[in-house]
Amino acid sequence: MSLTHTLADSQAFIDRYGKRGWALTCEALLKLLINPPLPVSHDADFIEDRDVEDVGFGVGFTALNTCRPAPRDAFPEVTDVRAWVGAYLRQKDGETGGRIGGFVQERLSEEGRSALVGVMQG
Fold it and tell me: Which residues are within 8 A (CB) of 81 and not within 5 positions of it... i.e. 6 or more apart?
């Protein structure tokens, strides 16, 4: 979400990093939308049942897997990130008189343009 806010809202980012920075940030966002990272598997938290005779206890640190805090979702209202990004960029494009659409046309490659237009169209 922060990449989307940076692309749509930050005039300082646009002024400082220009065409190349905006394009690289947009491409990073598109890569995340097209190939989103998978959640961490909880298989690493699984403790195998073993015979007490086979398990050795040492003085080292042992993580208490049952005492871990539950993960917190900072944006529970966003259920579909791709749709949210598209709607947000469309909204900001309208508010700024087509600035984002202009950046898409002048700063992105043909492949990037078609991918972002697909996201923005929903």
Answer: 1, 33, 36
Would you state the structure tokens that stand for residue 85, as one six-digit string? Answer: 């990004």
Q: What is the pLDDT of residue 72?
A: 85
Looking at the predicted structure, is the pLDDT value of residue 45 above 80?
A: no
Whether the Cβ atoms of residue 14 and residue 92 lie closer than 8 Å to each other: no
Cα separation, 8 vs 5, in Å, equals: 5
Domain locations in the chain as residue ranges: 1-37+81-122
Q: Given this model, what pLDDT does residue 96 score?
A: 92
Give the tens place of pLDDT for each residue, 65-84: 667 777 888 888 989 999 99
First to last CA, the chain: 16
Provide the CB-side half-sphere exposure for 72 (13 A, CA): 2
